[in-house]
């Protein structure tokens, strides 16, 4: 005869029952995953927007700064802030104590604006490694042409982006009434330099700000001594 002793007396009695209630497994719904992905994409877009917006603000601020400098520069032509080129050149020349020729070579061909003064403009000539005071747009037009190099009309028309050796130079078209062009040292693109208005535009758009300390590392040239 078989007697059923139940679970309390059989082999199962040796194993203790686990009566701890089980927690159901958490499941992430597809809708929640979709929302998380959208949130990540929106976060990336916001970050990119903020970076671009900050760069736009920096650009507008810099543009406003150079506009203010250039407005001061234009006032030299007439009014109380007029500057005598000869006297100003002599004054700056006396302040160049220790020229830095390595720095000067890096600045050759650039139009430099004194941001710590009234935006006075200088052109660093490649031939003699000296900077020349440009004065008003009228004076600047004359100075830049005087420091220019003559070339042929075919050479002028040959390029869109000019050779490295011409960067920063003023080229005079000897076969087309001496029309002049300023070759940007940054892009090597040619900018017409036909009149005072063109000169003013070049000074405004191509001028690079420089501190007095750095400017005075470059020797001063006397335009009157150039034949």
The helix fraction, in percent, is: 40-55%
Number of strands: 8
- Strand fraction: 5-15%
One letter per element, helices H and strands E, the order comes to: HHHEEEHEHEEEHEH
Strand order of the largest sheet: 3-2-1-8
Class by SSE composition: alpha/beta
Distance between the termini: 137 Å
Mean pLDDT: 81
The unreliable regions are 76-82
Rg over CA atoms: 36 Å
Shape, principal axes of CA atoms: elongated
How many helical elements?
Answer: 7
Largest sheet: 4 strands, mixed
Description:
With 227 residues, this protein is α/β, with parallel strands linked by helices. It has a domain at 83-221. The chain has helices at residues 30-74, 85-95, 101-107, 137-146, 153-158, 196-206, 212-215; strands at 111-114, 121-125, 130-133, 149-151, 170-173, 179-183, 190-192, 208-210. Helix 4 crosses helix 6 (196-206). It starts with 29 loop residues before the first helix and ends in a 12-residue tail after the last helix.
